[in-house]
Amino acid sequence: MELDELKAGWAELDRRVAMLEVTGARHGAAAAVRAELRPLRWGQSVQIVFGLMLAIAAGSFWFDHRDAPGPLVAGLLLHAYGIAMIVAAARNLVLAANATEDAPVLALQQRVAVLRAWRIREGRWFGVVGCFMWVPMIVWAFGLLGVDIVAARPWFVGLNLLTAVVCLGAYLVVSRLVRTPEGGAVRRARERLDEIARFTGGGAL
User: Is residue 204 part of a domain?
Assistant: First the structure.
Protein backbone atom coordinates (compact mmCIF):
# COMPACT_ATOMS: atom_id res chain seq x y z
CA MET A 1 0.00 0.00 0.00
CA GLU A 2 2.82 2.41 0.87
CA LEU A 3 4.54 1.63 -2.43
CA ASP A 4 1.34 2.39 -4.35
CA GLU A 5 0.91 5.66 -2.47
CA LEU A 6 4.52 6.58 -3.20
CA LYS A 7 4.05 5.88 -6.93
CA ALA A 8 0.86 7.92 -6.95
CA GLY A 9 2.62 10.78 -5.20
CA TRP A 10 5.47 10.76 -7.74
CA ALA A 11 2.98 10.67 -10.60
CA GLU A 12 1.11 13.65 -9.21
CA LEU A 13 4.38 15.53 -8.71
CA ASP A 14 5.42 14.80 -12.29
CA ARG A 15 2.06 15.99 -13.54
CA ARG A 16 2.32 19.26 -11.64
CA VAL A 17 5.87 19.89 -12.81
CA ALA A 18 4.81 19.24 -16.40
CA MET A 19 1.90 21.65 -16.03
CA LEU A 20 4.22 24.33 -14.65
CA GLU A 21 6.64 23.81 -17.54
CA VAL A 22 3.85 24.05 -20.11
CA THR A 23 2.40 27.16 -18.48
CA GLY A 24 5.83 28.78 -18.36
CA ALA A 25 6.45 27.96 -22.00
CA ARG A 26 3.13 29.43 -23.05
CA HIS A 27 3.65 32.63 -21.10
CA GLY A 28 7.16 32.89 -22.48
CA ALA A 29 6.02 32.48 -26.10
CA ALA A 30 5.12 36.14 -26.52
CA ALA A 31 8.45 37.19 -25.03
CA ALA A 32 10.26 34.87 -27.44
CA VAL A 33 8.39 36.34 -30.41
CA ARG A 34 9.13 39.86 -29.21
CA ALA A 35 12.83 39.08 -29.08
CA GLU A 36 12.86 37.54 -32.56
CA LEU A 37 10.85 40.38 -34.13
CA ARG A 38 12.89 43.17 -32.55
CA PRO A 39 15.14 43.60 -35.64
CA LEU A 40 12.03 43.79 -37.82
CA ARG A 41 10.54 46.54 -35.67
CA TRP A 42 13.76 48.55 -35.76
CA GLY A 43 14.08 48.11 -39.51
CA GLN A 44 10.50 49.18 -40.16
CA SER A 45 10.92 52.24 -37.95
CA VAL A 46 13.93 53.26 -40.02
CA GLN A 47 11.93 52.61 -43.20
CA ILE A 48 9.23 55.01 -42.02
CA VAL A 49 11.85 57.72 -41.53
CA PHE A 50 13.36 57.17 -44.97
CA GLY A 51 9.91 56.97 -46.56
CA LEU A 52 8.94 60.26 -44.96
CA MET A 53 12.14 61.93 -46.15
CA LEU A 54 11.64 60.61 -49.68
CA ALA A 55 7.98 61.66 -49.79
CA ILE A 56 8.83 65.20 -48.65
CA ALA A 57 11.81 65.60 -51.00
CA ALA A 58 10.02 64.09 -54.01
CA GLY A 59 6.88 66.10 -53.30
CA SER A 60 8.89 69.31 -53.29
CA PHE A 61 10.65 68.23 -56.50
CA TRP A 62 7.54 67.51 -58.57
CA PHE A 63 5.83 70.64 -57.27
CA ASP A 64 8.78 72.73 -58.49
CA HIS A 65 8.76 70.98 -61.90
CA ARG A 66 5.07 71.08 -62.71
CA ASP A 67 5.84 72.52 -66.15
CA ALA A 68 8.22 69.69 -67.12
CA PRO A 69 6.40 66.38 -67.83
CA GLY A 70 9.44 64.11 -67.34
CA PRO A 71 10.59 65.40 -63.93
CA LEU A 72 6.95 65.82 -62.88
CA VAL A 73 6.14 62.15 -63.49
CA ALA A 74 9.41 61.04 -61.88
CA GLY A 75 8.70 63.15 -58.80
CA LEU A 76 5.15 61.84 -58.50
CA LEU A 77 6.35 58.24 -58.75
CA LEU A 78 8.98 58.77 -56.07
CA HIS A 79 6.47 60.59 -53.89
CA ALA A 80 4.06 57.66 -54.15
CA TYR A 81 6.90 55.22 -53.46
CA GLY A 82 7.84 57.08 -50.29
CA ILE A 83 4.23 56.98 -49.09
CA ALA A 84 4.08 53.25 -49.89
CA MET A 85 7.19 52.72 -47.76
CA ILE A 86 5.52 54.46 -44.84
CA VAL A 87 2.24 52.57 -45.17
CA ALA A 88 3.93 49.17 -45.57
CA ALA A 89 6.22 49.74 -42.59
CA ALA A 90 3.33 50.93 -40.42
CA ARG A 91 1.35 47.79 -41.25
CA ASN A 92 4.37 45.65 -40.40
CA LEU A 93 4.65 47.35 -37.01
CA VAL A 94 0.93 46.84 -36.28
CA LEU A 95 1.06 43.16 -37.25
CA ALA A 96 4.27 42.67 -35.25
CA ALA A 97 2.64 44.29 -32.20
CA ASN A 98 -0.34 41.94 -32.52
CA ALA A 99 1.99 38.95 -32.78
CA THR A 100 3.85 39.87 -29.60
CA GLU A 101 0.88 40.28 -27.28
CA ASP A 102 0.41 37.73 -24.51
CA ALA A 103 -1.79 35.00 -25.95
CA PRO A 104 -1.97 31.22 -26.34
CA VAL A 105 0.69 29.73 -28.57
CA LEU A 106 -1.86 28.79 -31.23
CA ALA A 107 -3.12 32.38 -31.43
CA LEU A 108 0.44 33.66 -31.70
CA GLN A 109 1.14 31.18 -34.49
CA GLN A 110 -1.87 32.48 -36.41
CA ARG A 111 -0.78 36.09 -35.94
CA VAL A 112 2.76 35.35 -37.06
CA ALA A 113 1.28 33.54 -40.08
CA VAL A 114 -0.65 36.70 -40.99
CA LEU A 115 2.54 38.75 -40.61
CA ARG A 116 4.44 36.26 -42.74
CA ALA A 117 1.85 36.36 -45.53
CA TRP A 118 1.92 40.16 -45.55
CA ARG A 119 5.72 40.26 -45.56
CA ILE A 120 5.81 37.97 -48.59
CA ARG A 121 3.27 40.05 -50.54
CA GLU A 122 4.92 43.30 -49.53
CA GLY A 123 8.39 42.03 -50.42
CA ARG A 124 7.26 40.91 -53.87
CA TRP A 125 5.56 44.23 -54.54
CA PHE A 126 8.59 46.28 -53.52
CA GLY A 127 10.83 43.90 -55.43
CA VAL A 128 8.90 44.36 -58.68
CA VAL A 129 8.47 48.12 -58.28
CA GLY A 130 12.05 48.55 -57.09
CA CYS A 131 13.34 47.19 -60.39
CA PHE A 132 11.97 50.36 -62.03
CA MET A 133 12.22 53.02 -59.31
CA TRP A 134 15.88 53.77 -59.92
CA VAL A 135 14.88 55.18 -63.34
CA PRO A 136 12.84 58.07 -61.85
CA MET A 137 15.66 58.49 -59.33
CA ILE A 138 18.04 59.12 -62.23
CA VAL A 139 15.60 61.65 -63.65
CA TRP A 140 15.37 63.22 -60.20
CA ALA A 141 19.16 63.40 -59.83
CA PHE A 142 19.55 65.14 -63.19
CA GLY A 143 16.63 67.42 -62.33
CA LEU A 144 18.40 68.54 -59.18
CA LEU A 145 21.31 69.52 -61.43
CA GLY A 146 18.97 71.55 -63.60
CA VAL A 147 18.82 69.03 -66.48
CA ASP A 148 15.61 67.56 -67.86
CA ILE A 149 17.18 64.28 -68.94
CA VAL A 150 13.88 63.00 -70.37
CA ALA A 151 13.67 65.90 -72.81
CA ALA A 152 17.41 66.13 -73.45
CA ARG A 153 18.24 62.41 -73.77
CA PRO A 154 15.04 60.36 -74.18
CA TRP A 155 17.06 57.45 -75.55
CA PHE A 156 19.05 57.36 -72.31
CA VAL A 157 15.88 57.05 -70.23
CA GLY A 158 14.54 54.41 -72.62
CA LEU A 159 17.74 52.41 -72.28
CA ASN A 160 17.43 52.50 -68.49
CA LEU A 161 13.81 51.36 -68.71
CA LEU A 162 14.92 48.44 -70.88
CA THR A 163 17.56 47.60 -68.28
CA ALA A 164 14.85 47.74 -65.60
CA VAL A 165 12.84 45.14 -67.52
CA VAL A 166 15.90 42.86 -67.55
CA CYS A 167 16.29 43.52 -63.81
CA LEU A 168 12.66 42.50 -63.30
CA GLY A 169 13.23 39.21 -65.10
CA ALA A 170 16.27 38.48 -62.94
CA TYR A 171 14.31 39.33 -59.79
CA LEU A 172 11.45 37.01 -60.71
CA VAL A 173 13.91 34.16 -61.18
CA VAL A 174 15.81 34.84 -57.95
CA SER A 175 12.63 35.35 -55.89
CA ARG A 176 11.54 31.81 -56.69
CA LEU A 177 14.79 30.49 -55.24
CA VAL A 178 14.59 32.38 -51.95
CA ARG A 179 13.67 29.99 -49.13
CA THR A 180 12.60 32.63 -46.62
CA PRO A 181 10.82 35.40 -48.54
CA GLU A 182 9.25 36.64 -45.31
CA GLY A 183 12.62 37.64 -43.88
CA GLY A 184 14.86 36.17 -41.20
CA ALA A 185 13.11 37.76 -38.20
CA VAL A 186 9.66 36.39 -39.06
CA ARG A 187 11.13 33.00 -39.93
CA ARG A 188 12.91 32.75 -36.56
CA ALA A 189 9.75 33.81 -34.70
CA ARG A 190 7.72 31.16 -36.52
CA GLU A 191 10.32 28.48 -35.80
CA ARG A 192 10.45 29.45 -32.11
CA LEU A 193 6.67 29.19 -31.83
CA ASP A 194 6.70 25.82 -33.58
CA GLU A 195 9.20 24.56 -31.00
CA ILE A 196 7.08 25.81 -28.11
CA ALA A 197 3.94 24.35 -29.67
CA ARG A 198 5.55 20.94 -29.94
CA PHE A 199 6.59 21.17 -26.30
CA THR A 200 3.13 22.21 -25.12
CA GLY A 201 1.28 19.73 -27.29
CA GLY A 202 -0.27 22.33 -29.61
CA GLY A 203 -0.36 25.37 -27.35
CA ALA A 204 -4.14 25.69 -26.96
CA LEU A 205 -5.35 26.99 -23.64
Answer: no
